[in-house]
Amino acid sequence: MRQKTKLIHGGRGFDSTTGAVTQPIQLASTFKQDGIGNFIYEYARTGNPTRSALEELLADIEYGTDGFAFSSGMAAITAVMKLFVQGDHIVVTDDVYGGTYRLFSNVLHKEGIHVSFVDTTDLLALEAAILPETKAIFLETPTNPLLKVTNLFKVTELAKHHQLLTIVDNTFSTPYWQNPLRLGADIVLHSATKYLGGHSDVVAGAVIVKDSSLASQLGYIQNATGAVLGPSDSWLLMRGIKTLGIRMEEIETSSRQLVKFLQSHPSVTKVYYPGLVKHSGHAIHALQARGYGGIISFTVLSEEIALNTTNNTHYFTLAESLGAVESLISIPAKMTHASIPKDRREQLGITDSLIRISVGLEDVEDLAEDLEIALTHK
Ligand SMILES: *Cc1c(COP(=O)(O)O)cnc(C)c1O
Question: Which InterPro entries does the record cross-reference, listed alphabetically (predicted)?
Fold first, then answer.
């Protein structure tokens, strides 16, 4: 089965009891047992048919064996971190999602799990950060918001050599464009709130693995810690996933056109997009992914122009988040990445004049006009 077919026919496909072409939403919190211990489903935190159908679909589309659905992307990352114990060390991509940075620096730290933030595009720096107590490498590629690309082939090779797990947050590329499990990663996770849901109406997280030992540990953690995705949200996510392929294709086409527009605009000083041949990670990304996605970051001449732009678009909504049918615009330094200290942000290149857009499904001509008017607004 190819990817777009799998998005629709993967997992359980239709409902086997009624023939319904979509999965039913099962709201029951508990299930009758035919004698003690004789049941298919026991209790809805442990397992629910709608969530199970979604989890089978997630496993399929990421080329894994087992999927787990959580109440948010952060809940998914937290559950994965429960694989580790006090004293363990993890190497993490330095310009990781702001919430992930906050979790690692301010919460896991209290549990005695230590992290080093490293530019994982630099393999020598990455290897130098590995300590005797290192247990895993946690990556995002491309990163948020500068779209830096880490070589997944090389990192998973290095991780295997040092007996480390490779964990990849694949939110930006989606399973439609990039499948880290096929490139040697051990755990893939998603903020399903973004492209998988795709319609700004569900907050969810996903974890997918291909190894039975990791699967049983994560299943145990999911049930024990309990941040599961509810049945209605599981259903919404399955509905979103059906159109992931066509959404990503259309977003890709529009993004390429908007990149061209931005490159030729006099107020724009630099455009970050992995599809650009001169982007530092272009060649590596082209080897490990099939598309470049719908996130574009760019710097403008001044902070004032940046603020004017984000305040004056009509179709690009000023909002956090990304990956939906609506185009969104933000200033990462003041929004998604505000929890990263300013000097560190500047070090990473996340300046106050950096704008990030998430390209949606509107007519691209309207989107370009919208940016043109906002960029020249006085
Ligand atoms: C949004 C996001 C998260 C967090 O997911 P939530 O669903 O908001 O909890 C994690 N990683 C990346 C890359 C994200 O964009």
Answer: Cys/Met-Metab_PyrdxlP-dep_enz, Cys_met_metab_PP, PyrdxlP-dep_Trfase, PyrdxlP-dep_Trfase_major, PyrdxlP-dep_Trfase_small
